[in-house]
Amino acid sequence: MTAGFVLADADSFYASCERVFDPGLAGRPVVVLSNNDGCVVARSREAKNLGIQEGVPWFKLREFARMHGVTARSSNYELYASLSARMMRVMDQWLPGRVAYSIDECFLDPPARDPDRTLRLMRRAILRGVGVPVTVTMAPTRTLAKLLSRWAKRTPDAGGAAVWDDLDPMLRERILQDTPVGDIWGVGRRTAPRLTAMGLTDAMRLRDADQTAIRRRFGVNLARTVLELNGTPCVDLAGGDAVDGRREHMIVCSRMFGQPVTDLDGLRAAAGVHAQKAAVRLRRQGSLTRLVGAWAATSPYAPGYRVAGGWMRPEDPTDDPSVIARLAARILADHCPTGVRWARCAVILTDLTDRDTYRTLPGLEPRLDEGLADAIDAINCRYGSMHAGVGYAGIRGRGREDADTGASWRMRRGMLSRRATTRWDEIAVVKST
DNA sequence: TCTGGGGTCCTAGGACCC
DNA sequence: TCTGGGGTCCTAGGACCC
After folding, report:
1. In the complex, which nucleotide's C1' lies nearest to the CA atom of residue A34?
2. What is the distance in angstroms measured between the alpha-carbon CA of A362 and the sugar C1' of C16?
3. Which residue, A351, A409, A384, is CA-closest to A280?
4. In this structure, are residues A46 and A52 in contact, taking their beta carbons and an 8 Å threshold?
5. A249 C-beta less than 7 Å away from strand B
């Protein structure tokens, strides 16, 4: 078998998804906004060419977007998840060993022969079958495959695919040289300036840097990255395959409020909604929690930033939404003073254990009221998420978002596209004349 | 006025034990 | 005068990824 890793990474995934059911967006600048229509999280190639940066707050971009004909969309995760699943299914027909790394990206085993041709055929099948352009690369290590993917996306002549070992050695050196150190997988915004200050400005120089000095000054992770740049695979996928049903060690539900919340009722209501979303995910992966956390925070962009919260242990390990919601509400009530302009709150479930293997001494079994939680699950499974719940979590407003409770702190999503692959009433309509 | 969400691992430091 | 050493567990904070 050929050694190495194949990386398939969709191009501007969220923006590409928006185009699938709105072909009028083809060739035009498109940006997708984060929850609450807060900031830019995805940009089409045309939007990047206009100089729009990732993470720019939407309110600062709005005027510029109007002037340059940029289309903005609220993020439509239901649509993206559905198209992601389709994309993954197509890839499974081409290569074995798929490990999903994120919603738009996965690693696969290399083909037995003729890798360049296979990669290009797979790319074309995804484009035809799903409508999303994908860049497919192959290299001796995951880090090099990522680096090659970055190059291929910026090089139209590559045609969306590249195989490291097939490239001219001179070209490989140039690719390394043209990759700033901060664009290497595993080098973040903290480490990049420190490396640059040492003269390690690009991937070629980092590859040739002193291994032990890097280990000592930056830790084991960056030392591994250096090895990978040299062609020695040693980076594991941290949390890899989370998308394919692995059990998480921690479940976090956190949202900015649409408007600041200053009273305890608002905080408790939001905590209740998050607690129940977290409980759904906990139950879906068959875990129980032994430690529940909750916190609220003010806006980090306003003076006087503060975070308040804490932890509580349930009497017994639990996956009961009403128990979790009660604990979360109590934590916030105990730690968060009223009158503060809280901008966000979160519920965290951790110290998880398997539901199947959890046993205690006879006579000390947890007192779980499974009837209620199961009934809520069943209703939501049949009628859609958050149709039933404890406290505020079952109250729906007039909006169409799952989490829309009609409360003032709900998310803003003013530019949402249709969920054309998962809702009958939002299915795409094709007209012919 | 308005700035995302959800994960993982590593490391350092303190408490505690023998 | 001389004032141990090493292991484990836990937590908080930092860094990274998409």
Report:
1. B4
2. 44
3. A384
4. no
5. yes
